[in-house]
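Give me the fold.
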Amino acid sequence: MIHLSRWKVILLAATFAFGLLFGYANLLSEAQRDALPGWLPKNTLNLGLDLQGGSYLLLEVDVPAMREKKVTNLIEDVRTTLRESRIATNNLQREAGGVVVTVSDAGQYNAAFDALRTLAGAPGPNGVAERQVQRMSDNRIRFAFTDAILSSMGATAVDQSIEVVRRRVDKTGTKEISITRQGADRIVIQAPGESDPEALERIIGQTAQLTFQMVDIENSLEDALAGRIPPDSELMYGEANEPYLVKRRVLVSGENLTQATVTTDQNNRPAIGFRFDGAGARRFAVATAANIGKPFAIILDGKVISAPRINSAITGGQGIIEGGYTIASASEMVNLLNGGALPAPLKVEERRTVTAELGADAVAAGQLSTVIGFGIIVLFMFGAYGLLFGGISVLGLVLNGLLIIAAMSLTQATLTLPGIAGLVLTFAVAVDANVLIYERMRDEARAGRSVIASLDTGFGKAWGTILDANVTTLAAALIMFAFGAGPVRGFAWTLSIGVFTSMLSAILTAQVLLAYWLKVAKPKKLPIAE
C-alpha cells in the first residue's frame, strides 16, 4: 500500500487541480470574476442567512380559507348543473365540506341525483373519489367532498404553496433561498442577501388568483349595493373602488394560464399579455362566442382589474389585460402569474431581518474559530509527529479544505455558521485518520519491523477502522440532513462533504508523499518511532 503507484500520483494531482479550478473564484472580486472567460467556473460559496444577512419569514397557510373557497366553487358547480338540467330547487344549504340540495319537485328527484352523480365523476387514478353524492330524506341530496379529500387539503395546500413561493422568489434573483415546512401548516422562508423584506413579503403574500367571469347585467347593481345580491352573483370592486356585480361562475381561471408577459396596449401603455393552454382557449372561445356584446370581468385576488366588452369571439387563447400598470408593477404581476397562484392565503406569523453588520460579525467569528481550530490541529500534529509526518498531515488538511470549498462552490451549497462548525469538525476527523495510521506505524516500528513494513502495515491495518468511523459519521450526517432543518442541515451538509474529501485527501496525500520520501531518503528507521 506504500508503493509510489502512478495512478495514485495522477489521482492526487487531479484532486488538487479540481480544488483549484472550482475554488479559485472565491479569492476574486465580483468584477474580476465577470472579466473571466465564459468557460471558466465562476461559482463561489453561497453564505447563509446567518453569515451575510437577509430576511426570515414564518408564514401560516390559511387552510380554512382554502376549504371555504373550494366549497363555494363546489356549490356553484351544483347550482349551474341543476339549472342546465332544468331542475328547480327550494334551497341550497351550505355545510362543512359541501352542500345539501332540496329538490322542489319530487318527480325530478332521481334526475337531480343522476345529474349530481355525473358531476361527482369517477374515482381518480389512486381509486379515491374527490366528491360524493348521497340520498337524504325530504327530497334532499347531499353533495360534498369526500373525507379523504378534505383531510388531505391542508397538506396539499402547504406543498403547493412551497412550490409557488419557490418559483416566485427564484425569479427575483435571490440566491439559495431556503423554504422548509414547519409543523402542519407553516412555512419558513430564509432569504440570504435579500435587503428588502417588505418587497419579499409582498411578492410571496399575494395569492395571484386570476379568474375571468361574466358581469351580471341581468340584475340590478343598485339592488346588490342595497344588500339584495342574487345567489349566483357576487359584489366586487375595481381598482378605483367602483362596484361590479359579477357572476360567480368562473369561465376560465389562472390554472389554464401558460404564459404571461409584459406588453403594451393600443395606447402604448404597459399592459400584461396572457396565453391560455388548449383547454382554456376552448373554454374562453365558447364563453366569448356565447356572450358577444356583454362585459366580462378580469379578476385578480377578488378585485376587478378590467371589465371589457366582448366584441367578438376570442378564439386565439390569448389577449392583454389593461390596468394602468407601470413597467415595474406589470413586471411584478407577470412574475406572480407565471409563478402560479397560491392555493390558499399566507399569513405572516413572524418576520426577522438579519442586518449586514450582524452577518459580518458572524463571518468574522466563523473565520476566527476556523483559524483557531486549524492552528490547534497543526500544533498538535507537529508536536506529536514532527515536521515530516506532521507536515504531510497539514498538507492533507489544506487539500481537504480546498476540496470542501470547491465542492460547495460547484454544487452552490449554502455555508452557514453551523456549517463552519462542521468544517472544523471535518478537519478533526481528517487528522484523526492520520493519527490512526501513524500510531499503527509507530507500534510496528517499536516492535522491530522495518520502515517499509511499518509504513505498509500502518496503512493496511488502520484502513478498516478509518472506514468504519467515516461511515458512521456519514450516516449520522445523512440522518441530520434528512430530518433536520435550517442550521442542522447546514451542519450536516458540510460534514457529509468533509467525510468524502477527508478520506481522499488525508490517506492519499500521506501515501504518495511518504512513498516519495521512502524512495528518495531510504531511511533506516522510522522518525516517529523514537
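Residues 450 and 525 are 7 Å apart (CA to CA).
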